Amino acid sequence: MTTAETDSCLETTGIDVSFAGLVALTDVTLRLARGEILGLIGANGAGKTTLVNVITGYQRCKSGTVILDGEDITKASPEERARRGLARTFQAGRLFRRLTVEENLEAAAFGVGMRRRAARQRATEVLKLTRLERLRHAPAGALPYGEERRVALARALTIRPRFLAVDEPAAGMNETESEELLELVAEMRDRDGVGILMIEHDVGLVMRLCDRVQVLAEGKTICVGNPDEVQRDPEVIRSYLGTRKVSVDAA
Length: 251
Ligand code: ATP
Known about the structure:
The protein has about 250 residues and is of the alpha/beta class. It has helices spanning about 5, 50-55, 80-85, 100-110, 115-130, 145-160, 175-190, 205-210, 225-230, 235-240, and strands at about 10-20, 20-35, 35-40, 65-70, 70, 85-90, 165, 195-200, 210-215, 220-225. The strands form 2 sheets. The protein has a 6-stranded mixed β-sheet with strand order 6-7-8-3-9-10, with helices on both faces. The longest helix is centred in the last third of the chain and has 16 residues, at about 175-190. It starts with a helix and ends in a 12-residue tail after the last helix. Bound molecules: adenosine-5'-triphosphate. Adenosine-5'-triphosphate (ATP) binds near residues 19, 45, 47, 48 and 49.
C-alpha cells in the first residue's frame, strides 16, 4: 500500500442523532483505518445501528461530520458513498431474491458504474475469492441462511470497498458457519486491506477477530481500545459484558 493508502481512514466526529426527542447518539467520534477491523458493541438500543446508518448515509445526523479519506461525506447519499468505496451489509441480507448469486454481484457492480463486461469479470473474481463459485447460478432467494449471509458479504466486496460496515454478520449462524464467515471477513482485511466496522453481539467472536473495539452505552462511547483493554474496562463490564456470557478461550 502507498503512504496515502495507509493514511486512508473513515472518521466521524461529534455525531448527534435524536428521534422525536429520544436521544440515540451523543457526540460520537469514531476512527477506522484501512486494513483494520473495529468492533462496535453495546447493549440493545445503545445506538450501534444508528451510528452505522449515519456513516453509510441511511440516517441524517443533527450535528457532526462523516469524513472519508479527508473528504466530508456527511450529506452524500448511500449510492455516492458506495461509489467512493464505502460498502455495507444489512442484518437481513437484502439480496435480490429472484436473481442468481452471480446476478446479485453484477447488480452491485452496475451500481457503482461498472460496464457489463467489467461487472461480469469482477463477479467471477469475487465468487472465486469467496469460494462461492458452486452457487453462481443459484437463485439468491433459495439459499440457506448461512450462504445468504456469505453472498451478502461477497456482494459488498464486488465494489472493491476501501471500507465496509457489517451489521451482525454471524447472527443466527451455527458455529461452523460463523467460523467460516469470520475467516472471510479476516481475508477481506488482510488480502484486500478493507477497513471493516462490525456490529456483532457475539462477544467471543468480536474479541478474537477485531483489532480494536468501541463500546456504546445509551448513545455514548464509553470505551475504545484493543480487545484486552476493553474486556478489562470496569464500565464496560458493568454496563455490558457483565450481563453476557463471554467465551474468549479460543483467543
Ligand atoms: P440493537 O442491538 O438492538 O440492534 P442498537 O445498539 O443498534 O440496538 P439502535 O437501533 O441504533 O441501537 O437504536 C438506538 C435508539 O434509537 C433506541 O432507543 C431505538 O429505539 C431508537 N431508534 C432507532 N431507530 C429509530 C427510529 N427510526 N425511530 C425512532 N427511534 C429509533
